[in-house]
Specification:
- The structure holds two protein chains of two kinds.
- Chain A is of the alpha/beta class.
- Chain A has a single domain (7-125), classed as Rossmann fold, CATH 3.40.50.280.
- Helix content of chain A is 40%, strand content 17%.
- Chain A has helices at 20-31, 45-55, 69-82, 101-106, 119-129, and strands at 7-11, 35-38, 59-64, 89-94, 112-113.
- Chain A has a five-stranded parallel sheet with strand order 2-1-3-4-5, sandwiched between helices.
- The longest helix of chain A has 14 residues, at 69-82.
- The radius of gyration of chain A is 14 Å and the shape is globular.
- By secondary structure, chain B is α/β, with parallel strands linked by helices.
- Chain B folds into two domains: 2-261, 3-Layer(aba) Sandwich (Rossmann fold), CATH 3.40.50; 275-323.
- Chain B has helices spanning 9-15, 19-30, 34-44, 63-76, 131-140, 177-183, 186-189, 203-216, 237-261, 263-294, 297-306, 312-323, and strands at 51-57, 81-87, 96-98, 113-119, 145-149, 166-171, 192-195, 228-230.
- The longest helix of chain B has 32 residues, at 263-294.
- Classes of the chains: A alpha/beta, B alpha/beta.
- At the A-B interface, helix 1, strand 2 and helix 2 of A face helix 2, strand 3 and strand 4 of B.
- Strand 2 of chain A pairs parallel with strand 3 (96-98) of chain B.
- Bound molecules: cobalamin, guanosine-5'-triphosphate and magnesium ion.
Chain lengths: 134, 325
């Protein structure tokens, strides 16, 4: 039957090897009924944007615990725009200090989750903010 | 309005290799949106150029790792490559983790490579229902080689033969695979055998067993005797890449054999018949089931069967009699 399914990509940009959170999220998204593409660690923003377009995902979730989010997250948004894919929602999480939030929002990151964020709060955000494509 | 012979903007873009347009069409086909079917009808006549290679084998046999190396091997030969990687949908939640791509991410930025993950969405046989459609889209994009990685289920994944010109069966030593392969009828579907993870004990033995099994086979269609190719450990890049080059050559040889013996036509015809079968099922059965479900008839029938007032076979005949005039 025709039904617009939601696809999500979970990606880890940069040299950060903390993948526990990303894996837990990938599993939680699957269990919530989404199709999840996990890219693994050590991805360049270029690889992430390119994979997101090939996979035609609705949402890219970036996870970064190394402190390099300030460059990496906005770069992914920028590249998606260059590829004509700025309708893909980008959110992020990891070790991100409060004072960085506004800059990331301004760069087009739609929401940020930090340690302690419950899986339910993340899933709720997706349910409330992500609409199936036009 | 554009007529049937004139390409729409969308089709022009796909022919030009536009990734965004092609990937959106694949998704709309997966989601069975009616407008996607309309596009598929239009592009179908442009398909049939790519060499489609199926890769199957048990879970964790190293299929994705191999596909990643195959992409490099074909890129060296200046072929463009499309990959369809199928992973299972959870029957409980309908969700899926599509993990094959992890092994192929180094090609993400190569414009000559397009990798698309597909979830089975309940389809049996190790593939997704949309695989055939997606192959057509990659074909129209102009990909020279299309690689399909099946779900690793070990058995009953013979569906892949309906979509490929060349089927590669990946076996690993020490997993009892040779016995599984016979049971699952996988011996019959292989055009090329790969023995993967040659760093593992028993790979020579597995190769020998396979060879002797092949020696017992009465005859090979078109005279093609499936080669048994040992792939070196993926942790030793040099021997690994060398053996994958050898595999790429065998794949090309197989295609040439299909062409020369006329077997290619037979396979394409088999594929066409499967596609017609599937399309008919969609065109005839799906609307009937929908109508019966929506009208509540299905529910009533199930009740009757539950109470043993009738049986599924009689009811199927009744329904068929009503629709097939
Ligand atoms: C476990 C751990 C490790 C493990 C990692 C194992 C693994 N494979 O993941 C090991 C021991 C390997 C490790 C190594 C290192 N670590 Co460490 N590690 C941690 C620790 C203790 C917990 C991380 C974790 O797994 N949390 C559990 C998961 C579930 O939480 P999470 O990833 O944060 O995800 C949650 C949220 O952040 C959010 N989220 C995260 N990503 C995303 C993405 C999206 C899309 C969404 C929606 C939500 C979301 O949702 C999740 C659920 O709440 C943290 C400290 C901490 N309290 O965070 C340090 C920490 C991250 N590590 C740190 C450091 C410095 C290192 C090392 C450099 C240490 C060293 N000098 O060798 C190395 C580097 C490793 C590498 N290659 O990158 C620092 C980072 C400092 C910084 N950013 O400034 C931390 C913060 C410790 C500290 N206080 O100093 N580490
Ligand atoms: N020892 C050894 N391990 C290998 C080799 N090739 C792949 N592997 C490992 O086998 C595991 C599975 O590899 P994949 O390529 O994901 O296997 P797969 O068949 O695609 O797996 P599924 O898609 O889950 O069925 C990984 O941990 C690989 O690193 C090899 O040549 N030798
Ligand atoms: Mg795989």
């Amino acid at each position: 039957m025709a039904e617009k399914r939601i696809r999500i990509m979970v990606a880890k940009p940069g040299l950060d090897g903390h993948d526990r959170g990303a894996r837990i999220l990938a599993r939680a998204f699957r269990d919530a009924g989404y199709e999840v593409i996990y890219t693994g660690c050590h991805q360049t923003p270029e690889q992430i944007a390119s994979a997101a377009v090939q996979e035609d995902v609705d949402l890219v979730g970036l996870s970064c615990l190394s402190g390099a989010h300030g460059y990496l997250f906005p770069r992914v948004v920028e590249l998606l725009k260059e590829k004509g894919a700025d309708d893909i929602t980008v959110i992020g999480g990891g070790i991100i200090p409060d004072q960085d939030f506004q800059k990331l929002y301004d760069a087009g990151i739609k929401e940020i989750f930090t340690p302690g964020a419950t899986l339910d709060s993340i899933l709720d955000w997706i349910k409330n903010n992500l609409k199936p494509r036009d | 309005m554009s007529n049937n012979t004139e390409d729409t903007e969308q089709i022009k873009k796909i022919k030009a290799g536009d990734v965004r347009t092609a990937s959106r069409l694949i998704r709309n086909l997966e989601d069975e949106l009616p407008e996607a079917k309309t596009t598929l009808k239009r592009i179908f006549l442009h398909t049939g150029k790519a060499h489609v290679v199926g890769i199957t084998g048990s879970p964790g046999a190293g299929k994705s790792t191999l596909v990643d190396a195959m992409i490099s091997a074909f890129r060296k030969k200046e072929k463009t490559v499309g990959v369809l990687a199928v992973d299972p949908t959870s029957p409980f939640t309908g969700g899926a983790i599509l993990g094959d791509r992890i092994r192929m991410q180094r090609h993400a930025e190569d414009a000559g490579v397009f990798v698309r993950s597909l979830a089975t969405r309940g389809a049996l046989g190790g593939l997704s229902k949309a695989v055939g459609d997606a192959v057509h889209v990659l074909d129209v994009m102009g990909k020279d080689m299309i690689l399909i990685e099946t779900v690793g289920t070990g058995q009953q994944e013979v569906e892949i033969i309906n979509h490929s010109h060349t089927v590669i069966v990946v076996l690993v030593p020490g997993m009892g695979d040779e016995i599984q392969a016979i049971k699952a009828g996988i011996m019959e579907i292989a055009d090329i055998f790969v023995i993967n993870k040659a760093d593992r004990d028993g790979s020579n033995q597995l190769a020998n067993e396979l060879m002797s099994m092949l020696n017992m086979a009465p005859a090979f269609p078109g005279g093609w005797r499936p080669p048994v190719i040992k792939i070196g450990s993926c942790f030793e890049p040099q021997t690994f890449n060398q053996s994958v080059d050898e595999l790429a050559t065998a794949i090309a040889d197989h295609y040439r054999c299909l062409e020369e013996t006329g077997l290619l036509g037979d396979r394409m015809k088999r594929k066409a018949m499967v596609e017609i079968g599937e399309a008919l099922r969609d065109a005839i059965l799906t609307p009937v089931l929908r109508e019966m479900t929506e009208s509540g008839e299905m529910d009533a029938i199930a009740e009757r069967i539950l109470k043993r007032e009738s049986d599924p076979y009689t009811i199927a005949e009744e329904v068929a009699g009503r629709y097939l005039k």
